[in-house]
Recover the amino acids of this structure.
């Protein structure tokens, strides 16, 4: 073997030793890099489009137009549903108020529990009446396995069964969501799907003379009728969780909602499709 070849072999060996050392150092420090890794699976490429992180932030952006906004996150035994819209219109828990923190919870990044309604005596009454609200949006997060029951609506009586009642979101006997208003005859829009799967769902109903009736579920428009533009003209109270649904299509035998609720609000405006989608996305 020539002296030149021997030297070249030593150079190659030295290079190999140095390469092994560099690889060893890289492996030693690689865990500090992996701490910052993340995997995002999103076929719609919308991971960075939600403008609100919490339901408090999403609903809070629109509380200037809210008649009231209840988180429904008080402790068991509470009697007051605190209004955080700034209007000071606290609601009253009727019956025995029970709170729970299920997993998963609606609005999981918001502190607090959910309101559990027993399907008989549980509902929330509001403190003041309104004369013929003609433009409005109603909103609530809910989960249930029971078909039937009113989620939110407008009635002529603050606590007892109402003689006049409309502007109602309720579950029919099939578990579909129905939004109804009365203008000489019942006017309803109904979701094609059912929502008694025990999962959390977000529902918004809107009505105005210019837009008609719209029903959104989980951020998407599921039913509408632009020709239904007016509700019954009377003075009444918004109620959450119970009032009569007598005479309405698909009326259940039990008018009281059975399940859990979180974040209920009524607005004096029609929430846009973008606002509804933002509210729904913030609760996932």
């Amino acid at each position: 073997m020539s002296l030149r070849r021997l030297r070249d072999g030593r150079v190659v060996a030295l290079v190999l030793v140095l390469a092994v050392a560099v690889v060893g150092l890289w492996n030693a420090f690689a865990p500090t890099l992996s701490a910052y890794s993340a995997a995002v699976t999103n076929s719609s490429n919308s991971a960075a489009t939600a403008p609100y992180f919490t339901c408090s932030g999403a609903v809070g952006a629109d509380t200037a137009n809210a008649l009231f906004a209840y988180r429904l996150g008080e402790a068991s035994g509470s009697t007051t549903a605190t209004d955080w819209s700034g209007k000071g219109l606290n609601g009253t828990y009727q019956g025995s108020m029970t709170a729970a923190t299920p997993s998963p919870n609606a609005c999981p990044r918001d502190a607090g529990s959910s309101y559990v309604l027993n399907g008989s005596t549980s509902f929330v009454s509001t403190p003041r009446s309104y004369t013929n609200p003609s433009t409005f949006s109603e909103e609530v997060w809910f989960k249930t396995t029971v078909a039937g029951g009113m989620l939110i609506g407008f009635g002529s009586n603050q606590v007892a069964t109402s003689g006049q009642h409309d502007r109602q979101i309720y579950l029919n006997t099939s578990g579909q969501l129905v939004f109804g208003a009365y203008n000489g005859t019942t006017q309803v829009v109904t979701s094609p799907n059912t929502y008694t799967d025990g999962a959390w769902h977000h529902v918004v109903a809107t009505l105005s003379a210019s837009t008609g009736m719209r029903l959104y579920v989980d951020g998407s428009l599921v039913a509408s009728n632009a020709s239904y533009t007016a509700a019954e003209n009377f003075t009444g109270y918004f109620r959450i969780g119970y009032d009569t649904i007598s005479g309405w299509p698909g009326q259940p035998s039990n008018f009281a909602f059975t399940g859990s609720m979180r974040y209920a609000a009524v607005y004096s405006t029609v929430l846009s499709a973008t606002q509804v989608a933002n509210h729904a996305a913030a609760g996932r």
